[in-house]
Design goal:
By secondary structure, this protein is an all-alpha fold. 58% of the residues lie in helices and 0% in strands.
């Protein structure tokens, strides 16, 4: 990511067209659909780890954006060279470190050892036909030797992450802006109503789900536009009329940008369902070895 000069606290450095059209992973032979799947799996892993560490959503969201930034563009990282699981752990560790809730390397690594183990709730989705995996503490126990090696990897990966993103650790989120905009539009009365609570809840839900968008919405649009799009989509779902006329223009968002973001945010749920179907019987590759096996498998299938 190319850092902006004199970056505002309410804006983020955005990816260029060249960075979006050419990634290091694709140059290394990873197909665009597999790249999107691995990126989503890595973001989901980051979200799950943050929840288990009881970190606020603000820190988790910033870590997911940082994780996504690392793999953007030909100058970014490649999933064939840098494991998604390692970059995810380093992103969460680094983001928490510069926040008001820093986490120790042992806490980070213990949580990731659990989430990457056979006992992980992320490993296989369970249902009535596929019961939850029985917990086996030995499968995610970190011995002192394993911890020392993992800590060294974490610290090395953190340095690599910082260099690759040009030390641009600033991530401005649209969540607080969205609530401020709703108040400006008189959509959050005091005391609150059932409708206003539903509107705020759906707005924040869309902003959180957009973190997983294959269109990289947080890397292509500023927080102001993301906030407006989430409000527009939520208001349409809750059936609340906001302002008069083109109210989004007040927040300096054009109709074309709003339309693109509304479609993008609205399509995330369906895309996630499709990803769950594709990887229902096996885990999406998160290590270098797993990525290599998946790439070779697809080559063999395409050659037949």
């Amino acid at each position: 990511m190319t850092p902006e000069v004199q970056l505002s606290t309410l804006s983020n450095p955005l990816a260029t067209i060249e960075q979006l059209s050419n990634s290091s992973s694709q140059l290394d032979g990873i197909s665009a659909d597999l790249e999107s799947s691995i990126r989503y799996a890595g973001a989901k892993l980051t979200q799950a780890a943050g929840i288990l560490l009881r970190l606020p959503q603000e820190i988790i969201a910033q870590a997911i954006v940082t994780f996504t930034r690392f793999y953007v563009g030909p100058e970014g990282g490649s999933f064939r060279l840098h494991a998604a699981k390692d970059i995810s752990a380093a992103s969460l560790y680094m983001t928490a470190k510069i926040s008001f809730l820093p986490q120790s390397p042992r806490s980070i690594l213990t949580v990731y050892a659990y989430l990457l183990s056979p006992s992980s709730p992320l490993r296989e989705p369970h249902s009535s036909n596929n019961p939850p995996v029985k917990l086996d503490p030995e499968s995610y126990y970190l011995s002192e030797g394993d911890y020392t090696a993992a800590r060294t990897t974490l610290q090395h990966t953190e340095s690599l992450l910082l260099r690759t993103i040009s030390f641009t650790t600033h991530v401005s989120l649209p969540h607080a802006l969205a609530l401020t905009y709703l108040q400006t539009l008189s959509a959050l009365p005091n005391p609150s109503t059932t409708t206003s609570r539903a509107l705020a809840k759906r707005t924040l839900a869309h902003l959180n789900s957009a973190l997983f968008s294959p269109q990289l919405l947080y890397l292509t649009h500023q927080p102001t536009a993301l906030a407006v799009a989430a409000i527009y989509l939520a208001a349409r779902e809750v059936r609340v009329k906001l302002g008069g006329g083109e109210w989004w223009m007040v927040f300096d968002v054009e109709r074309e940008e709003l339309g693109f973001l509304v479609v993008g945010m609205g399509s995330v749920e369906g895309w996630v369902r499709e990803e769950s179907r594709i990887w229902a019987k096996r885990r999406c590759p998160l290590s270098i070895e797993e990525v290599e096996r998946e790439v070779e498998k697809r080559k063999e299938e395409n050659s037949e």
